[in-house]
Amino acid sequence: MTDKLLLTFNAGSSSVKIGIFRVDGERPERIGKAVVDFASDHVSLHLKEGPAQFELSLEGASGDDLAGLMDKVFRELGAHFDLDAVTSAGHRIVHGGDVFDGPVDLTTATVAKVRSLTALAPLHQPQALRMIEAVRHLRPDLFQTGSFDTTFHATQSDLVRRLAIPRAYHDEGIKRYGFHGLSYRYVAGALAAKAPGIADGKVIIAHLGSGASLCAIENGLSRDSSMGFSTLDGIPMATRPGWLDPGVLLHFLGPLGKSVEDVEDMLYHKSGLLGVSGLSGDTRELLENDSEEAREAIDLFTLRIAGEVGRLSSTLGGLDGLVFTAGIGENQPEIRRRITDQLLWLGVELDGSANQNNALTISTAASRVALHVIATDEEQMIAEECLSVFRGREHPAT
After folding, report:
1. Which PANTHER family does the entry mention (predicted)?
2. Which of 38, 126, 229, 256 is deepest in the core (most CB within 10 A)?
């Protein structure tokens, strides 16, 4: 008998990550993954099946309707996996607002609610919606679910989520939401399995990738985060500025006469490490560059991260553990070293050898704060949430 399969879709601005999972036990098991890059006219599909990897070129541009492109992707995937065995598909959706507090069945009604939140995430929400519609067009029989980046942070207090603006706007939904929730949920679970004594305490997880944020967690629950109303907030990122004095925006829009569209493009695509260095938004390239601008970009990045650790420690009332995750956090010892060098006042003590080897524990025995490196897996989290909703439909609670 062929095992049932589950697909996950993690749609970004210029690519989509696809996970292929076998469902024959309590936990979905990944058996393949693919990345569709539609940033240019030459759309490509990178597929990994076990140890084998394939690079395929797909004809056609992405356009507003992804159905044609995804039809090609499905046909390519079908040469390696039995897509007739796929029973469900889970999607990462950036914004759930105050509407969703967990994963949901993507019915016509819930998709309409997801669409109603587009104004809160104008660059991210449409991508997920396009993917949902494309999959529905190709496989209308497929059970689809949505997993939200914001729902993990629903445990934050109203005070933490509030901005110091007139109350009426808060009531209309202009508040701090927090993002990267799927990553934080996965890493918090992994920490509980690997270091339960630390996971039950006060922990900060640093999700450091091209998009980056930090989250303060207590007893596995989100208490505060660096990102707020939008994914522009918090620490500097590859091309996004992080925290920015709102007076700067007024200056851009007023005296400098820039349009909203120009400012939006600058904030999302031309700021952060790229903006400061004028060279690249990739920390690996900046670390290899001897220019003053490259050094300043890295110094600013690590300074702001260390500062945010301090702020979040204040929210928690202490700190037991600091966990690094995502592309930079998992793989770049030099960035971790520069951050922890600025946290000596917290009693942080880094084990240089363990750090260089990207070990699970990179703190010394004498360190008052446990330092860990844990790989994140958003697709695994999407798959698990999708399966829970799917099985909940098959076996509703009585």
Report:
1. ACETATE KINASE
2. 38
